[in-house]
Design goal:
alpha+beta; Phosphorylase Kinase, domain 1; Aminoglycoside 3'-phosphotransferase, Chain: A, domain 2; 2 domains; five-stranded antiparallel sheet; three-stranded antiparallel sheet; 10 helices; 10 strands; 40% helix
Length: 304
C-alpha cells in the first residue's frame, strides 16, 4: 500500500541506475530500498557508508532540486554543529530512467532508530538531548529568520490544519479534549527570538547504540530542515520520546520557562494530530507515535 496518494514508486534497480549515473564509481555496490523508512523520501542504502533519499511525492522537478540543494546546505551546517553523528551531504542527483525527480546523496549514519516508548525511561538520553538542543541553539542565526508555513513560526497559522485533523480524527481520538487544548495552545505568546533548530525531533530521526546496555544517543537523521525557528519547536521531543520523569530532566537541563514549555507542547500537539488519521492504514508506527504523544500531552495537562 502506498503511503501517499501521489506517491512515486521506487525499485532497487531504478535507484541503482540513478546512483551509478551520478557516481559511476559506485557501480557494483549493493543497493537496498528500506521499506517505510521515511515519510517524505524513499531511503536507499548504498553499501556500508552511503545513502540516498528519493522524494516520495510528485512535484515540480526544478523546485525539488532547489529544495534539495537547500537541504544539503542545512545538512552540512547541522553536521558541524551537532555533538553526535549526522549525515554529511554528497550532492544532488538528476532525475533518471524510471524516476522523474532529482534526489540526494549523503553518508549513512550508523545506529538504530528509536521508538516512542523504546527509551522513554532514559535520563541519560534526556540529558544528551538537552546537550544536542543547546549545541544547535548556539549556532549563528545571523540575519536569517523563520520562513515558510511549517512548524516553527506562528501557532495560529496552523488553525486550518488542526481543524482538518480534528475533523478527520472523529471516532479515532478524544476530539473535544484535543480541540480545547488547541484553543489554549494557539494563543500562547512567543518568547525569545528565532534559534537554529533541527525542526523534527521525532523518534525515527534519533539513533541510539543498539548494542549498549544503557541507551545512548549516537546520531540524528533528517537534518535538511535545520534553520531558524521558534526555540520551543525542539521541545516536541519531550512528548514524542520521554515519560513524565524524564521530561522533567530535559526541562531542567534546558531551563525552559513555563511559557516555552507550553509552546513546545503546542507544537507537539500540532504535529501529533496529523499522524493518527493520515498514517493509520499506511504506516502504523507513525500513527502510534501520534497516539503516544497525544496521551502524554493529555496526561501532562500542560495545555489545560
Amino acid at each position: 500500500m502506498s503511503m501517499h496518494e501521489d506517491e512515486i514508486p521506487l525499485s532497487a534497480d531504478v535507484a541503482a541506475a540513478c546512483i551509478v549515473g551520478m557516481r559511476p564509481d559506485l557501480a557494483g555496490c549493493p543497493v537496498r530500498v528500506l521499506p517505510a523508512a521515511g515519510t517524505t523520501s524513499h531511503i536507499v542504502r548504498i553499501g556500508d557508508s552511503l545513502a540516498a533519499r528519493f522524494p516520495r511525492r510528485r512535484a515540480d522537478p526544478a523546485q525539488v532540486r532547489r529544495d534539495l540543494e537547500d537541504e544539503q546546505r542545512a545538512m552540512a551546517e547541522f553536521a558541524l554543529a551537532s555533538p553526535v553523528a549526522a549525515p554529511v551531504p554528497h550532492g544532488v542527483g538528476a532525475q533518471g530512467p524510471g524516476f522523474p525527480l532529482p534526489w540526494s546523496l549523503q553518508t549513512w549514519a550508523p545506529g538504530v532508530p528509536t521508538t516512542p516508548r523504546g527509551i522513554e525511561c532514559s535520563a541519560s538520553v534526556a540529558r544528551q538531548l538537552a546537550s544536542l538542543i543547546w549545541a544547535l541553539r548556539e549556532g549563528d542565526v545571523g540575519e536569517r529568520r523563520f520562513s515558510g508555513t511549517g512548524r516553527g513560526g506562528r501557532l495560529p497559522d496552523h488553525d486550518d490544519w488542526v481543524a482538518h485533523c480534528l475533523h478527520r480524527s472523529e471516532g479515532l481520538l478524544p476530539v473535544d479534549d484535543l480541540r480545547r487544548m488547541w484553543e489554549r495552545a494557539r494563543s500562547l505568546p512567543r518568547e525569545g527570538p528565532d534559534a537554529l533548530c533541527h525542526g523534527d525531533l521525532i523518534p525515527a530521526n534519533l539513533l541510539v547504540d543498539g548494542a549498549a546496555v544503557e541507551p545512548r544517543l549516537v546520531g540524528v537523521l533528517d537534518t535538511g530542515g535545520f534553520g531558524p525557528a521558534d526555540p520551543a519547536l525542539e521541545l516536541v521531543v519531550a512528548w514524542h520520546l520521554l515519560d513524565a520523569e524524564r521530561r522533567a530532566v530535559l526541562r531542567e537541563q534546558l531551563g525552559a520557562s513555563d511559557l516555552q514549555w507550553a509552546r513546545g507542547a503546542a507544537w507537539a500537539l500540532e504535529q501529533a494530530l496529523g499522524l493518527v488519521w493520515y498514517y493509520r492504514s499506511t504506516l502504523p508506527a507513525m500513527a502510534e507515535l501520534g497516539r503516544t504523544t497525544l496521551r502524554r500531552l493529555l496526561a501532562d495537562q500542560v495545555l489545560d
